[in-house]
TrEMBL record, chain A:
Domain Transketolase-like pyrimidine-binding, residue spans: 1-163
UniProt protein name: Transketolase-like pyrimidine-binding domain-containing protein
Pfam family, one: Transket_pyr
Family annotation (SMART domains): Transket_pyr
Gene source species: Candidatus Desantisbacteria bacterium CG1_02_38_46
Residues in coiled coil: none
Cofactor: thiamine diphosphate
Similarity comment: Belongs to the transketolase family.
Record-linked InterPro entries: PDH/Transketolase, THDP-binding, Transketo_C/PFOR_II, Transketolase-like_Pyr-bd, Transketolase_C
Keywords from the named record: Thiamine pyrophosphate
UniProtKB/TrEMBL annotation, chain B:
Superkingdom of the source species: Bacteria
Entry protein name: Transketolase
Cited InterPro entries: THDP-binding, Transketolase_N
The Transketolase N-terminal domain, residue ranges: 6-267
Amino acid sequence: MRSVFNKTLLELAKKDDRIFMVLADIGYGEIEPFAQAFPDRYFNVGVAEQNMTGIACGIAMEGNIPVTYSIANFPTLRCLEQIRNDVCYHNANVKIVIIGGGVAYGPLGISHHSTEDLAIMRALPNMVVLAPSDLAEASEATKAMIKYDGPIYYRCGYKKEPPIHEDSIDFKIGRAITVCDGTDAGVIYTGTIGYNAKLAVKELDKKGIKCRFISMHTVKPIDSEIIVKAAKETGAIITVEEHNMMGGLGGAVAEVLMDSNLTNIKCKRIALPDVNISKVGSQEWLREQYGMSPQGIADTIEKTVRQK
Amino acid sequence: MEYLRLATLIRAYAVRMTHRGKSGHVGSSLSMADLISVLYTKILRVNPSQPDWQERDRFILSKGHAAAGVYVALAEKGFFPKDWLDTYYQDNGRLSGHISHHVPGVEFSTGSLGHGLPVAAGMAINAKRKNKNYRIFALLSDGDCNEGSTWESIMFAAQHHLDNLIAILDYNKIQALGRSKDIIDLEPLTEKLKAFHWAVKEINGHNYQQIEDALTNVPLESSKPSFIIAHTIKGKGVSFFEDTVSCHYKYANEEELEKAYNELGVKI
Ligand SMILES: [Mg+2]
């Protein structure tokens, strides 16, 4: 997915000279084409994420579209106050891109996991939060992000994520995509964990459990309408995210249900527990450890639906 | 003399505004009043009738807690009506305690230290890449120079030869909890900055001729960013505030307000 992001950004930058890349010494093997094509609009500030964000904000204040880019938490948590005070308060047109959302860099350990980002980024006024789930969404999300005027957080995958959408997609910020329809439960996911959720939904389909499967690629502003409709029409909402249980997609969906007085339906959040992950293993192995293998997701959905 | 007139008004209003708001940081405005006066009288190319004029010089107050002092200069220049000054720190006021870009003439909001210079450096590198002639000024405090992010941008600015970037340090050698030398001693600061490939000049930050000379002759060296270390006295101009840590927190009471007016020779 990171290659798709970088290629799409490069194409956009050919047509729009406001696009800058501001890096903090991360991106080997991916960012070189941009650096070579646009040396005037490319800076590596060194390993200095606070300065990266401040520099990007200064460039944005002058009418440009700088993209900050690094691994996992580096461009968010290390420089959170710069994002809050400089970028969000000034509504500066900075795009913050991370590579490796969730536990994508599994065996590298917790310093390279991004598992609180959705909660923290969505708590910032003016911030839009995107988490594309496959390569088609990644490309469309990149285009939409550049077109949008204002701060955006973009949670990018790390490798060649398999496709979730079979047809071409209509990607709009804040408008979720229904991947397949169903009436037994609304299964709402965000990000690359969506593929495991898709396998789970397919498995359940064979058992006669028909899920409405929804990609919530924009965690903020969240598509309340599609959530309310799914809750009313299916009576069960299950969220799936590769993120801490607290404050991410599940929290955002719960807020919508509460504000809509839809508290009498079956609900379940599938997410990472609120722990510091010290287990060592690949992304897929870690997902399985925390109930997010296709089978784990299917079991939780089935159990929730049976309780209706 | 115009510099003295504006600096005195900045001081008198800063004491009055913080008195009315029962707010802190009066010493920080008094400390930089002469620097701000020269900047807004002579140095900064800005246009009060068109605050977002593209070719303006950019000025970022990184020590955002000294907002009151800048607000006075902006009001005097005509960026907004002078009666806004009395709304400082008040309910439904126009002017917040830390500097805000919602006020006409303010380039950037700050308040947490270490934010001003990185943003200024971003503006400076953009101006370089687009061949713009305006300059970018950032006014820093002792505390600002404790922040790692300030030093990140110091390294960045030198790396990219940003000679359109001018950092001014209001070096009153006092920070929130005491004397800077007892907390984080910045010395030898000139040598440090030179080692970081900046052009550096030390001046008396209360001497108008020295301030004017230094700021008129930027960049101090071509292809290097300029750092002007202005030696100042916290609370300058009001005897009972001068060189005290407490003037970071205290405001003048009724009696002290009158005393300050008398010392400054102004009544508002
Ligand atoms: Mg100081």
